[in-house]
Amino acid sequence: MTKSICCADLFPGCEFAAKADTEEALLTLAAEHAASVHGVTELTDEIVAKVKSAIRDNETQRSGC
After folding, report:
1. Can you tell me the distance from the alpha carbon of 7 to that of 55, in angstroms, rounded to the nearest whole number?
2. Could you tell me the pTM of the whole model?
3. How far, in Å, CA of 21 to CA of 43, rounded?
4. How confident is the model over 25-51, as pLDDT tens digits?
5. Residues 26, 3 contacting (CB under 8 angstroms)
């Protein structure tokens, strides 16, 4: 099942959204975005946990992301 993430769930106002077939692939996309746009270069356990909590199964993703 496809996974998705809306950056706005973590950084209000950010319009970035990503989809991937696996959580690992989605985390890679999110990390690349966080580094290039938000300047987040150190992925602490706390940050990874927050990002993982924002991941949705594609069918449960809210609209407007």
Report:
1. 10
2. 0.84
3. 22
4. 999 999 999 999 999 999 999 999 999
5. yes
